[in-house]
From TrEMBL:
It comes from Photobacterium phosphoreum. One of its GO terms (cellular component) is outer membrane-bounded periplasmic space. CDD domains: MurNAc-LAA. Residues 78-197 form the MurNAc-LAA domain. This is N-acetylmuramoyl-L-alanine amidase.
C-alpha cells in the first residue's frame, strides 16, 4: 500500500497579530521575543509537507486554517481522509512543542502495542541523528521508545498516529536557539522527514 501522511499542527496560528490559542506560548524573554506554539507547529508541518511532496510521498495538512480547530474536528478530518483513500496506508503525525520545565524530545502513542510504536521508533532514531547531543525523554519499559498516553488525537484516529513534542518552549535556550530559529526549525523538519522515509522503506519491504 502507498503511504499517505497526515500532518496535524497543534493549536492555532496568528491572525492579524492575534494568537488564536489561549496560553500555549513561551514566556516573554529578556530580549522581548516570545514563541507562539501554534505558529511554530504550522511552520514545521509546512516544511515537512513540502519535503515529502518533493519526494513523491502523498500528504495532507489536516488543519490548514490559522484558527484553532477543535480536536473532534481534527479527528473527523483525519478519519475522513483515511476513508477516502482505502488503497493507502495512512499515518498521522501531530506536531507540538513542550512546556512545563525540562529539555529535549518526547514522542507519544496510544496505549498498548500498535503500529504507531514502529513509526515512533523511526522518529526517535532520526531525532538522535539530527540532534545527537539533545536529550531523549523516552520510556523503554515496554521495549520501545514512545510514551503511552490516552491523548484524544491518538485514541480516536483510525490509523497509526504519533504526537511529537519538540523541545521546551519554556526553556530559554531551546526556545530561542531551536524553536525560534530558522536553522532549528529546519532540523526539526529534517528529523521528521528522515523518520517518515525510514518507516516508508520498512513498510515497502514488508509488501
Amino acid at each position: 500500500m502507498k503511504p499517505f501522511i497526515l500532518l496535524d499542527p497543534g493549536h492555532g496560528g496568528i491572525i492579524n497579530g492575534v494568537y488564536q490559542t489561549p496560553g500555549k506560548r513561551s514566556p516573554l524573554w529578556s530580549n522581548g521575543s516570545q514563541l507562539f506554539e501554534g505558529e511554530c507547529n504550522r511552520a514545521i508541518t509546512q516544511g515537512i509537507s513540502q519535503a515529502l511532496t518533493l519526494r513523491g510521498i502523498e500528504n495532507k495538512i489536516i488543519v490548514p486554517e490559522l484558527e484553532d480547530i477543535s480536536l473532534p474536528t481534527r479527528v473527523r478530518r483525519a478519519n475522513h481522509v483515511a476513508t477516502q483513500h482505502p488503497e493507502h496506508q495512512c499515518l498521522l503525525i501531530s506536531v507540538h512543542a513542550n512546556a512545563g520545565g525540562g529539555s529535549g524530545f518526547e514522542i507519544y502513542t496510544s496505549r498498548g502495542q500498535t503500529n504507531s510504536d514502529i513509526i515512533a521508533d523511526h522518529l526517535t532514531h532520526a531525532f538522535t541523528q539530527v540532534f545527537p547531543n539533545k536529550p531523549l525523554r523516552c520510556d523503554y519499559s515496554d521495549g520501545d521508545s514512545d510514551k503511552e498516553r490516552g491523548f484524544y488525537m491518538l485514541r480516536k484516529t483510525h490509523m497509526a498516529a504519533v504526537l511529537t513534542e519538540n523541545f521546551f518552549m519554556d526553556n530559554e535556550v531551546e526556545c530561542y536557539l531551536i524553536l525560534m530559529s530558522a536553522k532549528g526549525r529546519q532540523k526539526i523538519i529534517d528529523y521528521h522527514v528522515r523518520g517518515i522515509l525510514a518507516w516508508v522503506k520498512e513498510e515497502k519491504g514488508k509488501q
